Every structure is written in C-alpha cells, then in structure tokens.
Amino acid sequence: MILIKNLHRTIWKISSKLGPFAPFIALLILSLILLSTSRLGLVIWKFGRVTDTGKLAEILMQGVRVDIMQFCFIALIPLLLAPMIAIKPLFKIWQKFTYVWIVAALVLLVFLEVSTPGFINEYDIRPNRIFVEYLKYPNEVFSMLWRGFKIDIFAALISSSLAFWLAHRYMKPWLQMGPSWSNKKIWLIWPLIFILTALGIRSSLGHRPANPAMFAITADSMVNSLVLNSAYSVTYATYTLMQETKSSDIYGKMPREEIFRLTGAKDTDIPTLTTLHPSHKREKPLNLVIILQESLGATFVKSLGGTPVTPNLERLKEQGIWFEQLYATGTRSVRGIEAVTAGFAPTPADSTVKLSKSQKNFFTLAALLKQRGYNTEFIYGGESHFDNMRSFFTGNGVDHIFEQKDYKNPVFVSSWGASDEDLLNKTHEQILAHHKAGKPFFTLAFSSSNHAPFEFPDGRIELYEQPKATDNNAVKYADYAIGEFFKKAQQSEYWKDTVFLIVADHDIRVRGVSLIPAEHFHIPALILGADIKPERYTGLASQIDLPVTLLSLMGIEAQHPMTGRDLSSLAPDTHGRAMMQYNANFGWMEETDKGDQMVVLRSGKAPAHGIYDPKTKQLKETSPPANAKELEQRALANALLPDLLYNEQRYRLP
C-alpha cells in the first residue's frame, strides 16, 4: 500500500510540471502498467501456445507499442480541444472535462481487459468485431451471458467498479491543481504535443500507419491478438465495420434461392462447394509458384495492344499457356490478391484481404495446400502489413512471410521496399531450399517496383524513355527481373516439378469515360513450367478462373468453394465471362458471337448495357438487348453471391 502511495505521489510530481497536460502523463503511466500487466497475465495463461511461436519477447515489446498507440488515441480528442478550454479563464472546465474523460477511459480499459479471458475462451481471440456486433442484440446477448457467463459478468462489474473508485482517487490531485501555465505557453507548446500524439497513433514512418496486420507476427491468430490490447482490438473492429457498410445490395435485392439457382450454388453449409477433378492426373502433384506483378496491365504488353516494354514476358509466352482475354476483378492490389489466391469474386466493399470476417477460416490456395502438406509462403519486397496482407495470409494458411527486413544486402531498396530483382532472387533461394528438402511448396511472390515513384537500379535495362522514373521504364525493369528469374528457374531441378503463374494484380491507372473502363481491366497472365504445353487461350476469362486452373494443372483433386472455371479442361476458344468492380459499378461481361456483351450494375440507377470490342478496346453503350432482363438477373446474382458468402462466412474449406 505504501509502495502504491509513493508511486501515486511520484507520478503526480512528474506530471505537475506539464501544467494543463499533466493528466495525460498520469494516464500514460497508469495505462502502460495496466495493459502490460494484463498482457503478461494472458501470456502466462497461454504460455504453451506463445512459446511455440518463439516470439515471446517480440509479443511483449510490440504490445507496449500498441498500448502507446491506444493511449494517444484516447488523448486525441481532449488535446484537440486544449487550445480552446485549457486556458486560464476556462481552466476549471478543462480540469473537470479531462477528469471525466480519463476516469471513463481507465474504467473502459479495465472492463475490456477483464472481459478478455472469457472472450478468448469462447472465440480464441481478443474481443473483436463480434464484441461490437453483439451490441445490436442486447436482449439475446444478455440472456446468453447470464446463462453461461455469470462469473465473467460479475468479474467485469466488480473490476469496473473498483477501477472507477481507484481512478477517482488517482485523479483527485489533478482537481486540486491551479493553472500554472500562461495562455501563450499553452499555445506555443500545444502543437508539439499534438504532433507527438498524432505520430504515436500512426506509430510508423512507412507508407501506411500501423494496424493489426503489422502485429500479426506469428501464424497463430490468438497469439497475434495478445500483442494488441482489447480496447485497440475493439476500436479497430468498429472502424472496419464502418468500412463494410457498402455491400452488393446497392444494386438491388434477390431471394437467396434465386441467387443460388442463377449461379449454380446450393443452399448448403458451403453453397459453392465443388469437387475438382483435375485435367492432369498426377501420381505426385506439382509445386506452385505465383508471381503477382504490381500494375502490369495489358497496356504494357505489345502483343495485347500495349507499349513494347515486356520483351521477356513476350518470349516466355511461347512456352506456356498464354491468356489473351483475361480481365482483373478490380483496381487495387488487394482485389487482385483476393481473386488470384482465393478465387473470390469482387464486391463494392473493400477486398476480403482487409475485411474482418475473412481474417481466419477463409478459403485460400494456401489453406487448401497446407492441408496437403505443402510449405506455404508469401514473399514481398516491402512491409507485409501493408493493406492488411500479413494478417490475411497468416490467418488463412500461409506459414512463412518474408518482407523488407528479411533481405540481407539487397541490390536496391526503393520507397516501396526491396526491388523486384531482390524479390525474385529471394524466391529462387526459397524454392531451391524447399526442393532440396523434398517437401512440396506454394510460394506467392508479390512485386512492387512498378509503383510511383518508379525507382529501380541503374544499369539493368536500356531505358524506354526519358526521364528514368516512369511507369514504362519501371515495367521494363520488372520484366528484366522476370527474365533473369526464369533463366535460373529453367536450369534448376525444381523446374520439372513446379507450375508457375505470372499475372498482374491490376492495370496501373484505371480510368476512362465508360461506366466500366474495360480496356484497363485487361491484364496478361501466363502459366508455364513442368510439362505445361504451349497454348493460347483466346476465350474471355477472369482472374478468379486462375486458381482453379492451377490446381487442375498441378494434379490436385480436392473440394473447394471457388466459383471460377477450370480453363485447362476447356477448349482455348470457349466463350467465357468476366466481372469487374469499378468504384460502385459492377460490370458483368459475357462473350458472344456478336461481341462481348456487358451489363453494368449501378447504385440507385437502372443497369446500363453495352458491347465491348476487345480489338478496338472500346465499350459502346447500347439500348437494352432482347435478353436484357436475363442478363441483368444473372449479373445481379453473381454480384450478390460473394457478399452473401462473406457475410455468412460460408466461403471456406469443409
């Protein structure tokens, strides 16, 4: 007790030097003690799972970082108001306001931390979006809690009451202080304090602020959640829920039976579950390497009507299956990742890579192949927490992640991380090691060199244009890195056992006057390696067809929920379909003998119709055709299906 009193005195002695900002130092010290103690207790409780990851020290240290972020977030609103009400004439109001704010914050922190063990017992993760969503159903939730969680309820209530009493006593010295700073001093120092707080919330000098994905440092989602504190976890879940409000029903509604009928799904536990019977029967299935190319649209490929800056890709296309009419599902990298690694169709909401319900138990190629004993990995030149990739991958089957910090002596590091050259050198090293170990593998390598400000090493390519830092030059360098990689790959032992896919995530700048600028969704894709025979697939196809096709070529017979087609089992000129999400517009394109017929679903407006000519790359709007209603219904069903699968969490392995 004496120790606590001495600590209390010391904290306020230090804090008092900061005048009107004194309570925030007091809050910082107490919240760090509280949250670190809670985290340590949870780590001890789950010690076996934590030590299995080998990341104990990192979990505790990164946890302090998250706690500082949370403190800064709590302090943000009062600090915004400080220049107006922390001044001498209003100092008493400032004292009472900050007293109430900090006492409430401490009580909430305690309540959430005390609630955490029960939540982990039930959901194997810290309080998250479920905690927030349940607030919409107070009667049902209270009934459930009262029947099954009486101890947790009383523990939370008692702890919160005790926290209120202690926080009140803790903050009493603040209410007894008088104004010690002049108004001028407050206004001069406030900008510095506010900037430090903003930097504390961001907690990163990288391209993106810190987020839960940055702290997904293990393959165990529960252990990753221990790095966070429960207040931060719930706050971030609330934010992501706000981002998910836009769903496919902006285009209209349809009974679920009709959605299933028109899409071929069934009203079962996993509506789209199907069994793949591979086109290539193999005694030992092949390995898989996907090279996802940043922003390398058809606009950079001469044979697809673009600029001639990909000579290596043009050379390699003669050695494998080359797709002439393949279309991306969206305009962002995460949408390409979603399509290529999970076979998931687009929606108006954010990609499932970033949404909360798909961070665990969501189907991916990695999840399926991991079940079959494959070593699964993601290799990236930048920071893997960007766009929530680390969290999505670690939660859905990826065992190992390599990012910028894992490169030793990289050839070149740009604003976005290690160059494509370094990326593919690392990929080659990893594949050699896997092959030598004799274990099957799935490697996803995601490039970043073709991204503004278009930085790459000198002396690798003859520049296509001046100045150096342009997209055409960056793509030419990316193509150079691909060429160098495949020179080594084709001379390596792993070549005969591995299928490779080179594909773009999206085009570089998707814009145009059309409701859907389809010409900018056109992307190159090439499958080669092992015993893959050269072929040109000229039928209309979508990114979501690629993962199914890859599994078939690998010789994998499996159940999966993907809605894409196995193109390796079809004639290369088979009429197909593609889907494209462009802001709030959803484009559904079907290949016919008269051209590519497109319907565009729009929010609050009637669907628009058009014919797309892939040769001239023009979409010509037309009046509704004779089969307009049928086409619109089919498009709507395919727009609503992924939304339904995501929200009901039915896009997964059996």
Structural class: alpha/beta
Topology, number of strands: 18
Helix amount, in percent? 40-55%
Mean pLDDT value: 91
Taking the alpha carbons of the first and last residues, their distance comes to: 56 Å
Q: How does the major sheet shape up?
A: 9 strands, mixed
Assigned CATH architecture of the largest domain: 3-Layer(aba) Sandwich
What CATH calls the topology of the largest domain is Alkaline Phosphatase, subunit A
Number of helices: 20
The domain count comes to 2
By CATH's scheme, which homologous superfamily of the largest domain applies? Answer: Alkaline Phosphatase, subunit A
Shape: globular
* Poorly predicted regions: none
Please report the first level of CATH classification, the CATH class of the largest domain: Alpha Beta
Radius of gyration: 28 Å
Approximately how much beta-strand content do the residues carry?
5-15%
List the helices and strands and how they pair.
Layout: H1 2-15, H2 22-45, H3 47-53, H4 56-85, H5 91-123, H6 129-133, H7 138-148, H8 150-175, H9 183-202, H10 221-227, H11 230-243, H12 256-263, E1 274-276, E2 287-293, H13 311-316, E3 321-327, H14 333-342, H15 365-371, E4 375-380, H16 389-395, E5 400-402, E6 413-414, E7 417-418, H17 420-437, E8 441-446, H18 471-490, E9 498-504, E10 522-528, E11 535-537, E12 541-542, H19 545-554, E13 558-560, E14 577-582, E15 585-592, E16 595-602, E17 605-613, E18 618-622, H20 628-647
Parallel strand pairs: 2-8, 2-9, 3-11, 3-12, 4-5, 4-8
Antiparallel strand pairs: 1-13, 3-10, 6-7, 9-10, 14-15, 15-16, 16-17, 17-18
